[in-house]
Amino acid sequence: MHTLTRRGFIAAGTLMMLARPLRAxxxxxxxxxxxxxxxxxxxxxxxxxxxxxxxxxxNFIVENKPGANGIIGATQVARAPADGGTxxxxxxxxxxxxxxxxxxxxxxxxxxxxVAMMFDGPLTITVPSTxxxxxxxxxxxxxxxxxxxxxxxxxxxxxxxxxxxxxLSKALDIPLTAVPYKSTPTSLIDLIxxxxxxxxxxxxxxxxxxxxxxVKILALTTDQRDPALPEVPSVAELGYPQLKASYWTxxxxxxxxxxxIIQAYSAAAxxxxxxxxxxxxxxxxxxxxxxxxxxxxxxxxxxxRQYWGKVIKENQIVLD
Length: 320
Known about the structure:
By secondary structure, the protein is of the alpha/beta class.
């Protein structure tokens, strides 16, 4: 039998009180996903909509607005009425990187209210098995021997994978050149066949190829190892804390959305992300639960301004 603690009782009561006026909402609450339907973010959003709807007694629907590196969807939310009817399932790319990279963008950090931090995921430092590199030290030695800039696949200028190459190049003092791709599968093919020397794809995209011996994941860009890949060390344990990086996903609302609505949505989102079903989906997709309220998301945005902002400024990167 489930026992409700005093703290849990208070939290549940607060959520119920906040939910009462929300049930009178005249329309469904739309969660905008700035990516195409059928992908991991779409799956996360639909489970989130289901969980939040059950918690608040509202109808949450998912609307996919892909395109322009997430700008189309994020712009729609930034311009939406601040009445609680529209939310953005945002993240590192659609929010932080676009704002930091694109001075002409029609939205900024001040265009949104932070609702809830949800989860993040690590990158990898990966090489094709054919080059015989088995550690970061081997990678440095390989680069010195090749006497050329090593190539790595990226998802385009300004993407997390593109910028991470700049971080790795500086930290290891080796020359690297980005090769842009429109999708992960095509980049993966060129990694496995040795056309590129490096990749920073997610562990979930590489796990089967690692087990098959086609690629070698040298490290995860995290503090700790992933239970799904216990043999792969983290950059922190290898002595490279400056190589830690991740990409996150969170929930945002248009600026000016009332605080009581933000609080209700935040509590419902956190409870959903911490549910067994959502955690199972996170594990399946190689993501890490990082549920937290508006302050947690604000802290992440500030961290991005310091971390990615420094990389962008040092390399004088400006995108249209």
